Amino acid sequence: MATSFFKYASISVALAVGLYATLLGLLTTSTFQSHVVYLHAIQMTWFKNLNIPETFGFLKNQVTPFSITTSDSERLYAWHILPIELYRKHELPLVAEPTGFVSDITSRLAFQLLRDDPDARLILHMHGAGGTVGSGYRVPNYRALSAGQPGRIHVLTFDYRGFGRSTGTPSESGLILDALAVVDWAMNVAGIPPSRILIFAQSMGTAVSIAVSQHLALQSPPVVFAGTILVAPFVDVATLVATYRVAGTVPILSPLTRIPLLFSYLQRFIRDKWLSKDNIARYVRANEANGERYRLTIIHAEDDYDIPWHHTPTIFWHAVNASVSVGISYDDLALRKLESKVDLGAAGSVMEWRTDNGVIREEILKTGLHDVIMGYPVITMAVMRSFEAADPSFTC
Prior knowledge:
Alpha/Beta hydrolase protein, transmembrane, AB_hydrolase_1, globular, 16% strand, 41% helix, two-stranded antiparallel ribbon, ten-stranded mixed beta sheet
């Protein structure tokens, strides 16, 4: 009996090792790696029609589905979401319009309310991996984003290439082109200047937003928005895979960190690196050199089991270090935090780093998980702080 037990146990262990080795082999291929990193095949809205936003809880024509074409001819599926108070004021003519996807958004009243209002603000929403614009906690997130000024704050959210109804296949360079196309639409089609645009990003979207922000900050003349809010960012893909656990329990590559040579070898196969720590440093450094005003808010929950919260202090340090001409060590910044951060008890803590040009704010919440946090009041407050900092009259 004991012999049989050890026999079956040995077979089970061999099978598990074989499956794990197969997984590692698949992860070195670009196609499988793309599906693991972006999860774009997992829509989570299979039984709902994205062209009928009302089934996601919106009012009739509060959301306008349309598409944005990228510089390499991909078509990105997008939603323009009206703030509730503005919708209330124009409810009758909005309800009278036909519903569904529109080929020419400029012909719709919702678009005109955005374009023609000099007090309108626009949030460009860059969601995380997996799903679509209508998945999971993203719909409550849109409401939280505009809740502070429900008559002025519009939201534009979109699916990256290969996600949902958008064409193409995701890649690092491709997603950057997608975000640039959305920025171009906001500034040149909707006519909203950067000072009235805010970037909101979560999870994978933070890497996209940071890459695009540093790209625009390095242009001549530079383009800098009213603010950038990053929720649950990660340092880079290599660091993320070293810590990532499925559902917070099942490790993927973290066991291999104990074998540095093997782990370093596998890192060579990472196609899309998403070096957020370097990109955020370049963004801050460019703004400091150009004298451009900027505002970064980085938010993370301690109970986030998808992307461990310790990624945020590292991102925060890279941003702060870039703002100081002589630099600051991670340990020295940690000491500054002990002196300056505000302890909010069960709500977490806040640390702000201010320069002559910018504000870099780190908010660590005790709870919020990876997605639930997106509907929290802390998101609404971050939006309001950013817009008010760019224009103090905004909240009047």
